[in-house]
Amino acid sequence: MEPKDVTIVGRESEREALSAFIQAPEGRALILRGDTGVGKSALLNQITEIAARAKHHVIRAAGVEAESELPFAGLHQFLYPLLSHIERLDDNHREVFDVVFGRGEGTPPSVMTLGIAVLDLLSLAASEKPLLLVLDDGQWLDASSTDVCGFVGRRLTGSSVKLVIGLRSDIASNFDTAALTELPVNTLSPAASEQLLDMCYPGLDPRIRRLVLDEAQGNPLALLELPPYMRGHRAGRKTEETFGYTGVPLPLRLQYMYGARIGALNGAVRAELLRGALDGVGAGTTAGRVRGIRYHMTDVEEAASCGLLDLEPLSGDFVFRHPLVRSTVVQTATPNERRAAHAVLAQVHREDVERRAGHLGASTVDPDEQVAEALEAAAESATRRGGALTAVAWLTRAAELSEGHEERSRRLGDAAFIAGHAGLLDRAQQLVRSDVIAGRGESPAAVVASAYVALYEDGDVQSSRRQVVRAVEHIRDSRFLESNEVLTRLINLLLAINQYASDEASWEEAHELLGSLGDMVPSDSHIYQDAWGDVVRRGTGVQKRVQRALTSLHELEPWDVTRLGVAAYHVDTLSRYRPHLQRTVDREVETGAVATGMTMLHLIMLDQIAVGEWDEAEQTGQRCLELTMSHQHALFAHHTRAYLGLLAALRGQAERARRLQAVVDTWARPRGVGFLTQIADAIGTTAALAEGDYEAAYLHAIGITPPGSFTPYAHQASRTLLDLVEAAIHTGRTEQARVHALAAHQAGLPDVSPRLALLTYGALSMTSTDSDEADAHFDRAENHPAAGHFPFELARIRLAHGIRLRHSHGRKAARHSLTLAAETFERLGAPNWTERAQAELRATGAPAAGSPAHIAVLTWQERRIADLAAGGLTNKEIGERMHLSPRTVSSHLYRVFPKLGIASRAALRDALGKIPGDQNV
């Protein structure tokens, strides 16, 4: 992609100053001083255009380094276009020009004599029209011409002549002492830099765009020249932690900016600059050091004196004047020079596992097992602190330096495994393919990589499961004890696949397979096996096992943290680990295991939903959805949509919830991804409950599990316990509701998780026919130590308790529970549930909170049913007239009551009378 024609971006103050300079009524001189490539020439072009529009005669000249030793070479450029005017000067002035330009003999004139002659010539030329002299690269003007231009520039007042000179600030010039007015030309602001880059290179890859902006540091020339050279480049801050700073590929034009000065330095100084550059010594405004850098450049005053280095004010250390200097130092060094510098730096950082290994890897050519081991240890360290991308590079290099095939293969497998978690699925497959040996089947490491791709990219739970099962059986039957690490990965991947499939037969096969492996199965994998599969039957005691496994949280690999986090979610103890997830998710998304970061975001969102932080959960979900889509993780993208749909259903956003439900179900059901189809059914259940459509809610709920039992390996079976019970009660299925509540108690759900304890006691209280028993269960639910951690479920139980109290103990007794429920629903942002609780509260005689402005109008069918019910007809009679079942009529009425702000049929007539006649037509 070539840059488009560039107009000046930013520079408002400079352009305003140049315009005022041209419009001034008399002559003057101005110096534009700035770094190479900062845009001085563009501003000189700008002032030329301004002058041309103002009817000035413009003469341009440019200093040339090759002519900087030729006396008056620069002055000749200015005066040559005015030679026709020389004949009109007096004899003395003509003789001066003849001597200067070699057309006559005589003693060279003094600066004053020649300067006066030049002033006369310029005044004569400007008598016809104003004159503008523009000099670019004035630092290369020969000394004689510089002295004369300085003399003239100080004496233009009263004339119609203006002189503007562009100078590089990093090169000394005779103009430095000319005492002319200066206008500094600084780098572009961050906003202007982004505007210029986006204007010239629209659609640039975001990572390349960020790297160009960081490297250019507001230098327009670099912003324009770098992008074509950056495609496919992986330099930048990430590589500072792999094999030292590698620089960015610079076009010759940018290399020339500093290359000549670097090449002219003493060899020892160049070597010191190279060590500083490779170790990531800061540059320009980015002079802060990366992690662990302690290198100090010494004896480099020569480089500082020629404008390549600056002193950092706080530390007093030398830093590179601009990132382009640092890149040029690296780019102009030979491979042998770079390797030698890395070897020195490896000794400097011998106490730092990661930095030493990175420099060792870059300094070594031939296989070296000690260096490979150092890189492997560094990769493990980097992974723990969120540097999965760095770890992949180090492990790949370790494989290259391995002395034996077995070690090479293992390290490539490790690199592929981490690459898969880092979202680099293609890279993972490339790594394992590079380990293929003729005549040997697909390696277990290759199975891990390919199964990850099949699962994450397309949700293929069937073929990926078969692949993994065969690989596990092969290792088991071969008894390759040295393959335990790969075996662990295969086991955990199999459990993840089964979790998504949620298929009983697959889980039973997995239990049998893991049983045959005996002690080869790690203890953490057994936790996943019990928590991810069937928490109803295998979840007792998982809480404590998860807690023990997460005792040394900071020592675990990021994917182990998230796996245990998923287990914690299934037993509803995720909140205690969420702070760690929130602290680490950003680093994993940026430089670490991005796929693990996606799961972290899922877990954070789930806990935000559970504790009632619904606005924050929405933000987390949207962020995760963007991330999954940008990495083409179709499985995680639909997983995220499922949670967003569930959240929308909780908030009463029925249309959005059902739209997301349909998208998830359409994608997941044909693939057999039962984990997501269950969430889709849960979305339907939750949305219907919010609307008061209890018949639809019941049908969705029994699609997950039938009443009175909990479908094996259906993770939503226990989570929707209260939904099924409540839907059954409101549709007259009291027996089914009671059977389901008792089944939860008999299954020991209160011992599995605090949330399931709350749901079980709530379900028992709602379905009990004995008032004392119901009150005891309500009390047990509402006073459970963890009840406050699940505000939505607690509010639903309090709502049910309030309704029961109103009927059994009178209106006053119900107000406290109903008030708490209404306040919680309103705080959460669940308007339909808020309306329902407020209607019940009004039925107790409590002051109305005011009819919410967002109450939905009645549909035609709802209005017709409401009119008939207000007229005294029973549900059966209404159903016969409208060809509906009594249960459907009941569901419609339950939706009507909260819309009208009432709690009983007796209030229907008055409420309907307050609706404008055409509102529901």
Automatic annotation (TrEMBL):
One of its GO terms (molecular function) is DNA binding. Keywords: ATP-binding, Nucleotide-binding. Signal peptide: none annotated. PROSITE patterns: HTH_LUXR_1 (PS00622), HTH_LUXR_2 (PS50043), SIGMA54_INTERACT_1 (PS00675). GO terms for cellular component: cytoplasm. Gene3D superfamilies: P-loop containing nucleotide triphosphate hydrolases, Winged helix-like DNA-binding domain superfamily/Winged helix DNA-binding domain. PANTHER family: TESTICULAR SOLUBLE ADENYLYL CYCLASE (PTHR16305), TRANSCRIPTIONAL ACTIVATOR DOMAIN (PTHR16305:SF35). This is LuxR family transcriptional regulator.
